[in-house]
Amino acid sequence: MELKELIRDFEYTLVKGEISQNVSELVYDSRKLCKGCVFVCVKGANFDGHSAALEASKKGAAAVIVEQDVETEGDTAVIKVENTRYAMAHIASAWYGYPSRQLKTIGVTGTKGKTTTTYLIKSILENAGYKVGLIGTIEVIIGDTHIPAKNTTPESYVIQEYFKQMVKEGCDAVVMEVSSQGLMLHRTAAIDFDLGIFTNIEPDHIGPNEHTSFEHYLECKSLLFKQCKTGILNGDDKHLKAILEGHTCKVETYGLGDDVDIKAEDIKLTTGRGYLGVSFRTEGLINVQAEVDTPGKFSVYNSLCAIAVCRHFDINEEDIKKALKAAKVKGRIEMIHVSDDFTLMIDYAHNAMALESLLTTLKEYNPARLVCVFGCGGNRSKLRRYEMGEVSGNLADLTVITSDNPRFEEPLDIIKDIEEGIGKTSGKHISIPDRKEAIRYVIKNGQPGDVIVLAGKGHEDYQEIKGVKYPMDERVLIDEVLKEG
After folding, report:
1. Which CATH architecture describes the domain 99-326?
2. What are the sequence ranges of the domains in the chain?
3. How far apart are CA 28 and CA 61, in angstroms?
4. Residue 319 phi/psi, 5° resolution?
5. Rounded CA gap, 370 and 361, in Å?
6. What is the pLDDT of residue 211?
7. Strand order of the sheet with strand 77-80?
8. Percentage of residues in the chain having pLDDT higher than 90
9. d(CA 289, CA 175)
């Protein structure tokens, strides 16, 4: 492919060299420089690619893409742009043949609910006969291939490579989580999303290495609605107006309030043999009677969002109902059937805010006892331990404190900190450092009507101890406990 074809989708200044030349590879990692490549000089947290521009030219790079003046030698073209990350997104899209144009693209952004919503959408679409790729916090799914995720939203080059593979696999659509960092760093810049989804927003990811303020966090989230054709948004969120500031898309809303396009009515909590759920019906742009086997109001919001997406595909009501009922998300209020008498679930809640939300939701089902099993990661803020201990002590009838990822700390030291937090409450607790034994305890001592939640690990299938990640999947541990009797 010629260089001029790769750079035609953004503004640039040709500082030096020719653009009518063939390119052998697209590179943004200086360790992969090769003859004939285009090297995009990206400023990272620990390394500035501009410092490798001279090396790239010495190795025969066809061009370097830069934001600032650099030293080069030979015939290497120097192309100056305002933002190299933005340029890289468009170069990668062109390099792989604009694969997103061959897919129905759905981007999901928000503070909470992104992961669950993407899986719900994938489930519904596939139940209706579509083949759907997925990019998200847990994994990337391309056909039968599951790739563990490193970032919620990968680098633009990687996204376009995944899209290309999805097209080859015959996918009709892709649903992906779009993080605020991904938007801020232009990882999704070259994607014209067919649908942009907004779940909700609250203060999060604010700090020196992420967003400088809540306003900046909100501004980054809003970028999705300047690059999608139709926006589907939570109409009940108090920041809706700010998220839509300067939007260029058509707008549809969902929620529980009156001023939305798709509204949930007649919400009822449901229970069954070893599971909790919720049923509701929708009114407005689409009318469906639905039930999901996950509890609480946030399950209604996630489901409403997925239902709203269905309007933009050829999907009938029965397919929607069937898919919602069957949908599961690994580690997100994931019900594991171990008894008809009590309910056991796995959830990723690993901070005080998430744990409080989860336990508060579960208490609405009036369980005989609410039992919470959790630990906290080592080499992380001690405040989280105190806070989570206090939350569980206040809300759970019994807390079983155990290990999570102790990393380089002693598990008993972490447990002691959690005990200090729970000591501020009147909640009952016991400590069982071995996580499998903690799980064995709650299963063997489960009582009729109990709701038991294993919090913190979620989709993770390892335990990190002294710098080594050992295999540990709670689903496997549960299965072993049941088989061992």
Report:
1. 3-Layer(aba) Sandwich (3.40)
2. 3-95, 99-326, 334-484
3. 12
4. -65, -40
5. 11
6. 58
7. 13-16, 77-80, 63-66, 37-40, 25-27
8. 88
9. 24
CATH architecture of 3-95: 3-Layer(aba) Sandwich (3.40)
The pLDDT value recorded for residue 216 is 83
pTM over 0.85: yes
| Tokens read off for 456 | 């913190």
If pLDDT is split at 50, 70 and 90, which confidence band does 111 have?
A: confident
Long-range Cβ pairs for the range 249-256 (8 Å, 24+):
249/196, 249/225, 252/285, 252/308, 252/311, 254/301, 254/304, 254/305, 254/307, 254/308, 255/301, 255/304, 256/297, 256/300, 256/301
| Token digits of residue 439 | 């799980």
Measured CA to CA, the distance from residue 236 to residue 234 in angstroms comes to: 5
CA distance 26 to 160: 12
Structure tokens at 42: 């990206």
User: Options 3.40.50.300, 3.90.190.20, 3.40.50.1980, 3.40.50.1000; which CATH number does 334-484 get?
Assistant: 3.90.190.20
Task: Read off the pLDDT of residues 131-175 as tens digits, 9 standing for 90 and up.
Answer: 999 999 999 999 999 999 988 899 999 999 999 999 999 999 999
Length of the chain, please? 485
